[in-house]
Write the structure tokens for this entry.
Amino acid sequence: MHAHRQAIATPTARRAHVRVGQHHTAANAEHEDASGREFAWTQTDFSRVQALIYQRAGINLHDGKHAMVYSRLSRRLRETGHTSFHDYLGWLEGSDGPEWQEFINALTTNLTAFFREQHHFEVLTQLLRTRPNGPWNIWCSAASTGEEPYSIVMTALEALAPRAPFKLAASDIDSNVLAKAARGVYRQDGLKGLSQSQLQRFFLRGKGDNAGMARVRPELRQPIDFLSVNLIRDDWPFREPFDVIFCRNVMIYFDEPTQRRVLERMHRVLKPGGMLFVGHAENFSDSRDLFALRGKTVYERVG
Ligand SMILES: C[S@@+](CC[C@H](N)C(=O)[O-])C[C@H]1O[C@@H](n2cnc3c(N)ncnc32)[C@H](O)[C@@H]1O
């Protein structure tokens, strides 16, 4: 975008492009607004995006996110051939097609890491050792690119008796990150938090064209069922209740009424006494009728 902007920065430059016959660049220049942006972008457009992503994903985009939203959605405009946000959003709202998934994917924030918030994995180890022969049924409900669910499975394979029944549902709303999670291929420099023995036991190092990459071994992949679940919708596909739910660093994007509704549903799909792990900045003490705090950002189902 910057290169494009430099090339067409002035009206003179625009005319020059037309003269030398670069119609494509000149045509795009028509859509550069007074601020130098490629696409016209108004407060009304931003408010519309805020309303749509809130309805679809519960994500509460605050006003400071203008630049982020513009840059992430500009790509969608280019790929779908729209020349203004007004047109793109009108087209999106008028359809029920696959662009909705792309719109959501563009606006989620997927930051994650292996063994993020290490203390949770120590608590999980202690918990799993109380019943080393299983069975265990765990849900990782905002799995992003997979580092969190694979960290949970590594912890389980290390804590439980060999072949103890253990299964993990790993879900997210974003189809791109779920596909990456299911592939289980990571850059080796993203695996720094893992011990040597974990690297050897659970990963295969890439060679040749795949040098610098590592793939999870089948032992790590096999207990996981990857699936798309929107936390704010009332259509969760689970039949069996969970012993443990990880719901970390996602509710932070939701407002309080949405958090409460999600917590009520999580309460329903957790077994009595089941544990809920949440992110470091998330606090659900207002819902103490549903969950009691049992450690740093670890809750137990009440009732
Ligand atoms: C910041 S990441 C957190 C990843 C991981 N749980 C962690 O703590 O490292 C937040 C994830 O929540 C997902 N997400 C956002 N809204 C969601 C929704 N309504 N339903 C399910 N997942 C959602 C995003 O796609 C993203 O992958």
